[in-house]
Design a protein that fits this description.
It is built from 7 helices and 6 strands; from the N terminus they run H-H-H-H-E-E-E-H-E-H-E-E-H. By secondary structure, the protein is mainly alpha-helical. It folds into 3 domains: 2-113 and 154-200, no CATH class; 114-152, no CATH class; 201-248.
Length: 263
């Protein structure tokens, strides 16, 4: 579950990253993560043999980050549109012939991914003499053995397919309630923790909090200003009436004339 959370967070970060403004180091980091995700590194979500990554210059030639990001984003937006549709009509009745497409099924995604599975158990390897290799499964191999899966692509054109395939595996079984939309940046994110999370990041939470405090301070200041203005008007009216009565005790005091009033 920990790896699943990590990789789902990675996908949402990758979807909303501003690729055009990324420096070389961040671009290479994304490429290495994709390389790892596809089963060629040692940090992937799926189980796979460990291989050392090739030089980053070779990886850079294989990946088109903009194209991969667009594929992942379109795929994810298709999912969130379905979720929003269900949320909008939750609790309402609908007919099969309605104009609104209530079908929850996603359109099929054609991929060209090579999947490998392996039954693995620990074994011992000895070389009693040059050119001679002896192998043996020790006792307890079954208890420690596992089935591993790995997948990859044979051509650069299929890399996006493999990324989408990996993303779909991560999304399998994720509750719809885990899909959230940040009220600050409006980006979608997936919250698999038990703790309620309203914002996609601490930065968005901080920006929202600062803006709310400023708004409340401005509102409070505005209310205080209006109160002072009304108090000032009352004092000015009393002062005006006091001056008039001193000069004309029986005068009927009406509205105070404006200073700029024309004759």
């Amino acid at each position: 579950m920990k790896d699943k959370k990590k990789w789902l967070t990675w996908f949402t970060d990758f979807m909303y990253a501003d690729i055009d403004t990324l420096g070389d180091a961040k671009r290479v980091a994304f490429m290495l993560e994709i390389y790892s995700l596809l089963g060629h590194g040692d940090r992937g979500y799926t189980k796979h043999p460990k291989h050392s990554a090739p030089p980053w210059t070779e990886i850079a030639q294989r990946f088109d980050l903009e194209k991969t990001q667009s594929s992942v984003r379109d795929f994810f937006e298709h999912i969130t549109e379905k979720i929003e549709r269900i949320r909008a009509y939750e609790g309402t009745s609908w007919k099969r012939d309605t104009e609104i497409d209530f079908r929850p099924f996603l359109q099929s995604v054609q991929t060209t991914v090579k999947m490998d599975m392996e039954v693995k158990a620990p074994y011992e390897h000895k070389s009693p003499s040059a050119g001679q290799h002896l192998f043996r499964y020790p006792k307890g191999s079954i208890e420690r053995g596992v089935i591993t899966t790995s997948y990859g692509v044979d051509t650069n054109e299929a890399i996006d397919d493999a990324v989408l395939f990996s993303f779909s595996q991560l999304l399998d079984g994720v509750p719809l309630a885990s899909f959230k939309q940040c009220p600050e940046c409006e980006h979608w994110f997936i919250n698999l923790s038990k703790k309620e999370k309203l914002f996609c990041s601490n930065q968005c939470a901080a920006r929202y909090g600062v803006r709310r405090k400023r708004k409340e301070a401005k509102k409070a200041a505005s209310a205080s200003y209006r109160k002072q203005l009304e108090s000032s008007k009352v004092r000015a009216r009393k002062s005006y009436e006091s001056r008039i009565r001193k000069m004309h005790p029986k005068a009927v005091i009406g509205k105070r004339p404006r200073k700029n009033a024309k004759d």
